[in-house]
Amino acid sequence: MSFAEKGWVKFAPDPALDRWIEAAKPAAVRVAADPDWQRDWLRCGGTWFVGVNALGNDPDGAVGGVPLAGQAVDFIHQNIEPAPIRWDRAQVSVCYEGYPKPWDGESEAALRFRRNRDAAHVDGLHGEGQPRRRFLREFHQFLLGIALTDSPADAAPFVIWEGSHKIVQEAFEKALSQHPVKQWPDVDLTDVNMETRRKIFETCKRVELPLKMGESYVIHRHALHGVAPWVEGLKGPTEGRMIAYFRPTDEAQMERWLAAS
Prior knowledge:
Elements: H1 3-6, E1 8-11, H2 15-33, H3 35-41, E2 42-43, E3 48-49, H4 71-79, E4 91-95, H5 108-116, E5 125-128, E6 133-136, E7 143-147, E8 158-162, H6 164-176, H7 190-203, E9 205-209, E10 216-219, E11 225-227, E12 241-246, H8 254-258
Antiparallel strand pairs: 1-10, 2-3, 3-4, 4-12, 5-6, 7-10, 7-12, 8-9, 8-11
Helix pairs in contact: 6-7
């Protein structure tokens, strides 16, 4: 099956990306251990460092002058975005043994969903207010994940519902096409999201995508995905299961975000 059918593609380590990892990993380890960053981003009872935009890479993706390159980046340019990409500062996502534990303010229902359904979500769809409603606030081009540590397969692996991007695209297109493009971020997608998610759980295959150090994957922007619990008693690297995630956005082309390809 192709990326267009599955919504994901995985890549083995390659020398070009290995050079970038060698430069990025020390910076990622430092920021994950920084008390100021932890104050904002250490959650789930200390078992998840969220680390949004925590890696200080350049807009071209480079870290310390080492370019972001390799098979995954080539794939993106050949199949998703041929134009130059303005890379966001990467998320440094670190899971630790015991993930997920409860954290202050998280409801029992939310914790159950995190444990039983991997906190499944579509990127860019933000929960706001009480009760929480869902709005599309970020228009990502794709998701690129790069493993910075070598972790066991059951150490909180990434999870995707294969083919879910097609269902999400169809449902969101139906909901958003009734509104002017500039109004899309203000359209309440809560009910659409819940109904779409239920359909995906019933019809799509749940696939775990663990990464060894140096491996990477590209995920379709519409794919439903999440993170599985860390298997109880499993030991991992001291630094935790660490993945750098890039999610470049293109606010000027919101219509393109909604396109099927």
